[in-house]
Amino acid sequence: MKPNVVVDARGLFCPAPIVKTSEAIRVIDPGGILEVIADDPAIELDMRAWCASHGHKIQSVAVEGGVFRFLLKKSDAK
Fold first, then answer.
1. What is the CATH number of the domain that holds 60?
2. 3 state DSSP class of 68
């Protein structure tokens, strides 16, 4: 699955990764894919809560060496 936009939030801590995610997803068409890369340990819970509250879907999560890679599908309604 190829993302439309990639957000690299490594080195940033809450709330910056979610703020960058929120800004980036605005430019993607509904149904588009956003990749978010972050190393903040809080990002896993934060991202799940943010997606649930905004209607976006987490397509996949990969964790390697403390780095999280999320593929998010933008809600059709947003």
1. 3.30.110.40
2. strand
Q: Do residues 33 and 1 lie in contact, with contact meaning Cβ atoms separated by under 8 Å?
A: yes
Taking the C-alpha atoms of residue 32 and residue 65, their distance in angstroms, rounded to an integer, is: 27
Point out the residues that are catalytic. Answer: 14
**Distance of CA 6 to CAs 21, 25, Å?**
9, 10
* pLDDT tens sequence across 4-19: 999 999 999 999 999 9
Structural domain range at position 29: 5-73
Q: Where are the beta strands (DSSP E) in the chain?
A: 5-8, 33-38, 57-64, 67-73
- Paired with 9 in beta bridges are none
Give the C-alpha separation, 57 to 72, whole Å.
Answer: 6
- Give the CB-side neighbour count of residue 11, counting CA atoms within 13 A: 2
